[in-house]
Write a structure and sequence with these properties.
single chain; Nucleotidyltransferase, domain 5; 3-stranded antiparallel beta sheet; 10 helices; 8 strands; EC 2.7.1.59; ATPase_NBD; N-acetyl-D-glucosamine kinase; N-acetylglucosamine kinase activity
Length: 271
């Protein structure tokens, strides 16, 4: 990254933000070249989790820090309207589908937060896994390797000890952090974990379907896919979701990105 030379006109920049329940990422792009100038990561800005005032302060600090790292300031930020109808699905600690309608502007589906159990999120997978362990322990559900895997991860002796662990957690991130264990168990052939993955993929695909209907999207349109759960396109969850999206929207272009969601947001804003 190079700073603007003395006497040069101010460089306009684009700010991309991914504010989640675990962390908040900010990317700064050069508006003209799309060059990535700076990235920062801060704490949660989900106000349902941390409160509105702390969320706002964290977001403000993160954006200003990123702008400073990019040798820019708030006056350099360029607002560009996203001019191509389509939708994006973000699956991280929480999940949300965001779409752009040619007539109604930006719309959303999901993103209600963990208490409303956003389907296809890390919290969704983690909560379903804990419920499956409880059922297996009680004899109300099938045995699953999630019992041993989650106990080992949480450093407890047996499933009953998970009660103390779960209710001692602060925020949503610790439950969402169980999601990789579910994906690994499903990929290893565990039927209970595979059912959890299937339900979560159904919910995530359903959010996209609702967004497509809301936006009136037809034919060929982009579906951007990003977030922590989708970083590995070859994971069991990613594959299950892709299969459903291709089935439901055969002409749509699935744009899976290994870029952080905040970088992708800035790139989409520059189109």
């Amino acid at each position: 990254m190079s700073a603007p030379s003395a006497g040069a006109p101010p460089r306009q920049v684009i700010v991309g933000v991914d504010g989640g329940g675990t962390k908040t990422g900010v990317s700064i792009l050069d508006a003209a070249t799309k060059e990535l100038l700076a990235q920062t990561v801060a704490g949660s800005t989900n106000w349902n989790s941390v409160g509105k005032e702390p969320a706002f302060l964290t977001l403000r600090r993160a954006v200003l820090c990123a702008l400073t790292a990019a040798s820019s300031s708030a006056s350099d930020v360029l607002w560009i309207w996203l001019g191509r109808p389509g939708c994006a699905l973000i699956c991280g600690t929480g999940s949300i589908a965001v779409g752009l309608s040619a007539h109604e502007g930006v719309l959303r589906v999901g993103g209600w937060g963990p208490l409303f159990l956003d389907g296809g999120s890390g919290y969704d997978l983690g909560q379903q896994a804990l419920a499956a362990v409880a059922r297996a322990t009680d004899g109300r559900g099938g045995d699953t390797i999630l019992q041993a895997a989650i106990c080992a991860y949480c450093n407890v002796t047996n499933s009953m000890d998970l009660l103390g662990w779960a209710y001692a957690q602060q925020g949503w991130a610790p439950i969402a952090a169980l999601a990789p264990l579910v994906i690994a168990a499903a990929e290893g052939g565990d039927e209970v974990a595979a059912e959890i993955i299937a339900r979560a993929a159904d919910q995530a695909a359903g959010a996209v379907a609702a967004m497509v209907t809301k936006c009136g999207l037809q034919g060929a349109f982009p579906i951007a896919l990003t977030g922590g759960l989708l970083e590995d396109p070859n994971s069991g969850f990613s594959k299950a979701l892709y299969m459903r999206l291709k089935r439901d929207h055969p002409e749509a272009a699935l744009v899976a990105s290994s870029l952080p969601a905040h970088h992708m947001a800035a790139l989409l804003a520059s189109l």
